[in-house]
Amino acid sequence: MNALTFKNGDKMPIIGLGTWKSKPGEVYQAVLWAIESGYRHIDCAAIYDNEKEVGIALEKAFKDNMVKREEIFITSKLWNSCHRLEDVQPALKKTLRDLKLDYLDLYLIHWPVSFKHGVGFAQTREEYYTYSDVPLSQTWEGMEHCINAGLTKHIGVSNFNISKLTEIMKSASLAPEMNQVELHPFLPQNKLVDFCNKNGILLTAYSPLGSGDRSASIKMPDEPSLLENKIVREIADRTGLSPAQVLIAYSLTRGIAVIPKSVNKERISQNLAAMDIRLSTQDMKALSQIGTSFRYVSGSFFTGAISPYRLSDLWEQE
Ligand code: A2P
């Protein structure tokens, strides 16, 4: 199974190129290397501040007949400052202009957290909206309009827990089709995965390699390393895979899509080469018993003292 299948039969290749943290000046080449090496899925977001450069790379790939538009799956995400009904479609149209596309394959609400229009990262209490100002159901309605307007083929969410998914599903005409969340052996998210599986919501794992290139300002001192974890390394050494391939295969084995980020030609190819790898029951068991529990993208930047949101609004206890 090298693709996930949506309810209407559309397929999403199970490995995509992540572009969070890919710098302008690097992401253009990374996207072209990825397409050249066989990637047919690129994961983007407006807040990554590099969609224009991704768009120039896609334009080149189409012009040079490396790939046709209908052969590649492109995801992007709605930023927190465009959650009001009237702001959703304009935000998607801006992303389409930047990516130089007529439509997206998948559009996601990036976070269940709202900022006032035009705010990048809220720095004061006044720059936030609360859930009573802008309910998630309102944002979801805007997402549904995007499908009806033909701007995206599928819609979903990112960083949503079970209660937020349930809330949206109550009023939705179209149920969320995807939840993109942090997922790896330090954060298996078993309850969320079960809930999504039972409700026909596909999953994509972000930060599958532990996002070691996050800026120092959002890192904790002494973070555990996934790539250097003893059990991951033991499986890699025994199977002849790289630690990154073991981590990618961990999600693939669970039927979950993965979007490893790389701007390095060899690592881009190496990550895609994990496409057909599935781990044995024994190795999956060893990874599930790793004993280290860690969330790299804590969400604490949206839940500080000035924010109306608490960490308990974002994550449920496993
Ligand atoms: P680089 O872009 O230089 O390849 P995540 O996908 O969890 O956010 O992790 C991205 C980080 O992992 C980046 O620092 C990226 O560096 C690195 N990385 C990507 N692929 C590999 C790989 N195959 N082996 C080791 N590190 C990798």
UniProtKB/TrEMBL annotation:
This is Alcohol dehydrogenase (NADP+). The lineage of its organism: Bacteria, Pseudomonadati, Bacteroidota, Cytophagia, Cytophagales. It comes from Cecembia rubra. Belongs to the aldo/keto reductase family. One of its GO terms (molecular function) is oxidoreductase activity. The record marks 77 as: Lowers pKa of active site Tyr. Residues 15-290 form the NADP-dependent oxidoreductase domain. Keywords: NADP, Oxidoreductase. InterPro entries: AKR, Aldo/ket_reductase_CS, NAD(P)_OxRdtase_dom_sf, NADP_OxRdtase_dom. Substrate binds at residue 110. The keyword Oxidoreductase applies. It holds the Pfam family Aldo_ket_red. The active site is at residue 48.
